[in-house]
Structures
1.
Amino acid sequence: MRVRYSKYEPGFDDLSGADLMDMIQDFLMDSGFSDPYNRYQPDPSRAPTAEDLYDALLQALLEQDRIPEEWLREARFANRKEETRLYREIQKLIQRLQDEGFIRLPGNDPSETGQGFQGESQETRLELTNKSVDFLGLKSLRTLLGSLGKNAPGAHLTRHYASGVESSGETKPYEFGDQPNINIGETLKQVVMKGLDNLEERDLTIELSEYTAAMNTVVLLDCSHSMILYGEDRFTPAKRVALGLAHLIRTQYPGDQVRFGVFHDSAEEVPLGRLPTVQVGPYHTNTAEGLKLARKMLRKMSGEMKQIIMITDGKPSALTLPSGQIYKNAWGLDPVILAETLKEATLARKEGIPIHTFMLAREPELLAFVKKLTQITRGKAYLTTPGNIGRYVLMDFLNRKVSKN
């Protein structure tokens, strides 16, 4: 028997796109907390660049000790990194992420230009696909639901009964349009009592079931400066919760809709594909503008059952004036800002929208504000921390019973 040994060629051929996503998920979810120079971008939903992705993969490979020493030595003394084996191999990994549908680099497709990555612009913006968002959402969901036990997610219950879905044990006479869930025992009683020839439509007895309805949700994330202050990253856990909710709704509640917004000096909607890369900035907290945005988003979503989930760690400290200027006051709870914020809460109440607030801090002023906000909208308030916020949010979403008054 003859055994032939071939020369070992170092490389990263064993790494799949999913492996690479695992390695760089912290980079994709970065909230700005790790930036020692506080180099805030003016756009809180800005996307990282192709160069950022290269650096993230390089760092991940170095941490896992996967780069051969000769590649590092070559890179150390090279005049241009684009000429090194290390650079070419990492660009192959970037291409693998594109080929497997995890990322897009618009305007930098070698098949379109006929060129490789050597000529790419460092400002090429990285776009995440639905596949990558689902990957990050599933990762977050598994972590967040790890302590919730084995019960499967339910649906959004109402106070009403109908002739479908899950049986409640109750019955009623048949009416036109009901699902034909005939209760055989009760119907046969009518046959015996009235005779087959005398039966009417209402003598058919159907089984009642719990009626479930679709829920429209807007998740508001506070991305003001305080979310990364005081030696604690509060924003990354908030984003993980939002991604977990998105994945849960898309997979378990196909009739539901969820959209996302961020508020800071102002507020804007963030598409799901840009949610992982949202960062905090040197902003104040314009809660009123966030609530106004959420109400506007919910008006565009069909259905009657609506809710706002707001994740914040600070009291309102900014307000958009009629002129469009931003009035700011970070000292204490400004009565003008407070009044306008509670006005938005009152408008939400009139539109039948509860506001459920998850507080990441325990300042007395914040607690008093959230208590008032909750009372106005008949929502719920949760005092939580970045470590357990996911459990509270998802437990509430899975178990909430909603009734119409």
Note: The chain is about 40% helix and 15% strand.
2.
Amino acid sequence: MSDEKHFTRRRFLQFTGLGLTAGAAGAPVVATAQLKDAVGGTPPAIAKLLREALLPQPKGARVVVVGGGWSGLTIAKYLKRYNPAFDVLLIDKQPAFVSFPLSNSWLADQIHLDFLSHSFFDAADNHKYHFLQATVLGVDRTSRKVYTDVGYIAYEYMVLAPGIDYDYGRIGVDDPEQQELLFQHYPGGFVSTSELLTIKHKIQSFKGGTFLLNVPSGDYRCTAAPYERACMVAALFKKRRVRAKILLLDMNTGIKIKKDGFHRAFDELYKDYIEYLPSSEISGVDLDGKAITTEFDEYPFDDAIIYPPIRASRLIEEAGIVNPRSPQMAANTDPFRYHVVGDEHVYVTGDSRGQPFSKGGHTAHSEGKYVAEVIAAHALGKEVAWRSPQTMCFSSVEIDPLQAMSIITYYKFNKQTNVFDFDRTHMIEDWDIQGGQASLAWAEGMFRDMFYR
């Protein structure tokens, strides 16, 4: 393979001087003059990246929030609420927000896409911060700059909430070409909106046979979501009388949350549709032969939704702030304050943070309010007491009408084991219409808070 094909994003960032710091000290950005010497003159496209982005001059300490998901949106809003003097800038590469929480209900035709879709501009206007649609290429913590495809932005504080990346290598798919094909043809549905649209088309057009889904190992977005998705797909197939078997391969030893409720749904509602196989560690995917292999078996399929194990966004690794003990490349942060160890001007929240809390939307929203308060207090030389995030999760299992079960929990730090445990957990594993309506009311309230109120 030619060197040109090996010109990766990492090499591009290093080559152009946008390399990311590899620790608290880190390497400074290469000066433009050095770049000219290296390449014989700076191409216009690269020069653009090395210029300051065309933004209004900040009127206070600038806080840059990278990532417009549930965590980033919440933090941007509450930073302005807790410290109106902050100049807050939210950056996301997407032109609009589409919620992954509650997307399974959309896949099952219980809500419209408009319910999940919202404007970043509305959020910024209503909560008095700035929004920039741009792709973040890297950060330099030494000079406190964020580099984007429209230029660099200086910051006083930065919050990294960039989400997740799939880790296809953990299911035996290492070749980049095969990874791209797997992502496009059998998307997991937890990174991009296009994945959701593809999955919806798959479900609507499926004519019969084996429809394969899986549950990844490790921590992943919304613990209950893969089991809920299996129920929603089964409900649609049952409604449309599609002759199908839904094969649910769980890479874990058993259902990770709401175990009794999901088992009862599989047995009582979808016994003729769902075949659940725990301890099914995926070791390979044959895209041409349409088959998944595990340690002991091979499972052919007619169509599939393949949700690989996840890792923190590669932006965390490229920034040199990965916790070396984290198998999922999570950030090395203070577990109570969320700032990068050794750098109280950079915080990591949401899916890329290291704490073992749920990666669901409500958790991200709850902790986002706390982190905004921590940053606002730090700017004033103060501290706030640690408080646990709250996790609230609804799981739909039946449609027409929508019916759901739920869980609410907090967390506490166990000083004897040095780990976080569940605390004050209230779980309802009997699904009903009230649960389904509560899930919609919950989402409406969250959207109102992040975008409109």
Note: The chain has two domains: 1-163+313-387+434-453, 168-312.
3.
Amino acid sequence: MLNLILFGPPGAGKGTQSDLLMSRYHLYYLSTGDALRREIKIGSTLGLKARSIIEAGGLVDDEIIVQIIGNALTGSESSDGWLFDGFPRTYVQAYMLDGLFTRLHTSLNRIFILEVPDDECVKRLLQRATEQGRSDDNEAVIQRRLQEYHQKTLPLLEFYGEAGILTRINGLGTTEEVFDRINQQISEDLKQRTANVILFGYPGSGRATQASRLAADFNLTIVSTGELLQQEVRAAGSLAAEVAPLLEKGLLVPDEIVIRLIEKKLKQTEGLGRGYIFKGYPRTLVQAYILDGLLRKQGSSVSCVINLKVPVFELIRRLDARSRTTSSMPYDSSAATIVARLQEHEERTEPVLDYYASRQQVISLDAKAAPNLVYEAVKDQVSKAIRSLR
């Protein structure tokens, strides 16, 4: 998930930037004030307690605030992350937020501070007061708000500065210029996330084309069992005699052989990219469990499964056309072999798709269109999946 805090003095433009961040990254905006008013409005136990304190002229204590924020987080987990405004406001609340994230198996990714000189903030707020007819927003009130901001924010900056996730943003310039500065840091953060993508689809669905482009754009290593097996045969490796006849018939190679080749590939490429694209694997439910174990050894897991959907007659047409090119595979040799290959895929690999669908990891895309158009959809969905990682 992408979890952000946006700090800034009154008049820095936090509201405008918050709207852009929520729209761009599908974030849930979480304001302490909004969450508090929501609990009061629905008449919850917490809301009634908070209302009685407010009506008596007191401040709602952290014991209630942490529960209200916790409820808001739990009720918005369908988003790709959270954007906080007005929380945390104290050192204690910063620790409270860490605890809430731990419970939800996620963490805070970045704190942005919009830096705008006080005189510019005063100028902006006075202009806004004039435009909106807000007589209560005079210079004396604005100066007090700015002073309060600096006093309360400084300890939090020290807290988060030590965590290495605090970024100061020049808040001067156009709205677009400021957002570009924020977005540049977020893009860099997302590039560091581990990502493991499975490209699922029938033979002829275009997995190879999409895999090569994803690998280049996301710095991923392609793990293709078909290519690993072909390489083993061409190199006359120790497993070639067992592999060659199976490839010629388009049949599945025993898991004992495939596992060893994949393990070797992962060891050779570990640390060279941010993750992997698995093409042609897993093809059975057993292999899906095996892949979970292989990735767990590396401290990662499957991020998403892209299911490329193409009608069966279009698949046959594509594979038949491929059989007359230099890209022909052994199992493209005849119509009977092609049909057998597609039938085997349906029988053996559909349970794999069901397995990942039960974990809400499958993204099905129409892959009949031109490769470039399909890739735009694939790239967009992979980007979203990476952002939503906890």
Note: Residues 195-387 form a domain with the Rossmann fold fold (CATH 3.40.50.300).
